[in-house]
Fold:
Amino acid sequence: MKNDISIVLSGEAGQGIRTVELLIIRALKNSGYNIFSTTELMSRVRGGNNTTEIRVSNKSIQSFVDKIDILIVLSRNAIYRIENRLSENTIIIGENTFIEDKYKDGQYKIKDIPLSSLAKEVGGLIYSNVIIFGLLSGIFNINLNLIKEYISEQFSAKGVNITENNINAVIKGYDYGKNLKLAIQVEKNEEIKKQIILSGTESVAIGALAGGCNFISAYPMSPSTGVIQFLAKHSEEFGVVVEQAEDEISAINMIQGAWYAGARAMTTTSGGGFALMQEGISNAAMVESPIVIHLAQRPAPSTGLPTKTEQADLNLALYTGHGEFPRIIFAPGNVEDGIFLTQKAFNLADKYQIPVIVLTDQFFIDSYQSIKPIDFSMFKPKNYFIKTDKDYIRYKITEDGISPRGVPMYGKGYVRFDSHEHDEGGFITEDPEIREKMVDKRLRKMESISKESIDAEIIGSKNYKTLIVGWGSTYGVIKEAVEVLKDDDIAFVYFKQVYPLPNNTQKILEKAKNRIIVENNATSQFGQLIKSQTGLEFNKHILKYNGMPFSLEEIIEKLKEKK
Amino acid sequence: MKTNFDFDQIPETAWCPGCGNFAILKVIKEAFVELNIDPMKLVFSAGIGQAAKTSQYINSNCFNGLHGRALSVATGIKASNPELIVIAEGGDGDMYGEGGNHFIHAIRRNIDIVNIVHNNMVYGLTLGQASPTSRKGSKTTLQLDGVFLEPFNPIAVAISLNASFVARAFSGDMKQLKGILKEAVNHKGYALVDVFHPCVSFNKINTFKWFKDNTYYVDESYDNTDKMAALEKAFETDKLPLGIIYKNGKNKTFSENLKAYKNNKRPLYKREVNLKKVEKLLLSN
Structure:
């Protein structure tokens, strides 16, 4: 096994696979390996079958692969769902009784580990996951002291005995892993040790803090909830008001009250919750309240597949809310952009007094990657509200459509927000002339918004004939596929701002003879948007909507056949 | 007499002549004058409906948002700047129907606001349908055979959620209404003031006279800190009690519970981002 190894942990919910994942990716990164990990869950708290894929590589990676080099089996019935991803090279490691006989006919390399009895020797089955962490550390020959240090940190709060048991567990696993003598060859790089491991969730939450977020209200909904949980953990330190709302309708209205009083507020939700927020989003448009919404997509309609991934809520975000009003939609494809775009969302929402939506998905949210430290001095969080004077009027008609926003108690004016059509002072009006002027005023903001759109990025050959278009979380897989194909005719264009379309869209797309779009949905929503705005069509659509992200192999194969 | 809360030009109201809302508007303004409240510090968070329009006729800060959502907006405002005096105002349909879920949870949060509900037992702005508080048997433009749903009892619901201040007044007695409003504003914690008032256009049953005949004041011997006694009052149906039915000042307010104010009392609009700290958080991840 050389330079690109895929490990899959497969077991039941509640077995502590997430703990193993977090420990091992940290240990691997701190040993100088590039890592990427992603989790695929069933929607349950106990039982079922969950898998986590950990990739270890000599180069920067952030995509899901089908191939499995090492499969760790942690329970019965943990193989059949991923059977088609096994090959003759796959090494299956697990307790003999967990591996069904049909896999033992010689087609796979099987390594039996008496996991249950090892765990019982240490103190009970609960130690199984730490043994597995030790095992993987042993396979990769990670410094044992480093491993012990992590274990001490992780369990010190639980007392000396438990910490000691866990250290014994990790050593047992470590020895077992070393003795397997698997020929692992992945080049290490000292620079990687300085990197930071970050999930999509953490990138959105940290980006929010960098944008000055000091208020979040949300109703729990997978896969979006991690963002409010992260901010809850740091509420005191960063002075963030954190409130679990009674429903999404309350959350979206609460954050408008917060912005009104001078806070910088956001909410986080998934498709169903976002649908409930539509009335509130439309309200924000009318009262001209800034709002930031993180929308983490999952397969729909309705309850859909709560723990899987999809990119099918672009249209929902694009057309949300009754009436006509400006908005911005970002779609980060990597965690650097998760931070960058979320902080930017706060500034743009504030500047233009509009809804800004950060559109992610389960695959992005639940995946971890390591990144170089980010220079935060490039971020310029700014409050755009003004100090009011006595004659302040809220909805002044201006050339660019932006009416200076006041905040109660800051200055001498009253701040009057109104959800009816209103005059410049914020009072109800039904005057047709004022109505037209106000509609024009609000829509006029779109001109300035478009001007500062974030350009789409080209990755690969500048002299492309074939152009692959992707947005959001497909970034990693398309980028890696293009790198693997090494074809001078092919380039990938990554859209991190999906609405309004970046100003370089037409130019980039026109240049290609062959346009291919890749989307994690069934109807190519972004393709349709591009077509409606530029008139340009796609020759091919690569679409996936079974709840899983695209795999690297799949994209490479489809690009080969469609070129 | 022009008060601090009046506009230079008196706005044209959208209410019918004889509407109970006029009395409520007048009393609110008088109460604020008597309490010496700075209009700069006052915010009205209102929903939609004839009652919610009150905010349009008071010269102060206001957020006239969506039908049913005034309590959520008010929560966001008060939690972001606890120095503001926040009034969430609307009618019975607005607060108990469309906003019913928010009503329950605003009470649970004990957000330090005054929640004024104009309760006329009917929908006015949509021209006469039943409201959550309509009495059984009331015939309306939509409930043609009469309402058969159990009426919503906001007083009992609020008390059972251990609301910190629960009162009921009648717009026909402006003196008592003013007294209750003043106490509600001075009270720390969530305060519900449900105000009975007649709808002269659409409610021909619960008229001024009906409210007069079917209500009474709790007397001085009544202990409004006794929760079970308060619940009993709330369930009385023969005649409906008026006054402060329940008071419980024991619970911390929502803002007092927020960690965001533990080490820093400044309202959020006065705070700045510490990017260095965020960067450090990222590096420690």
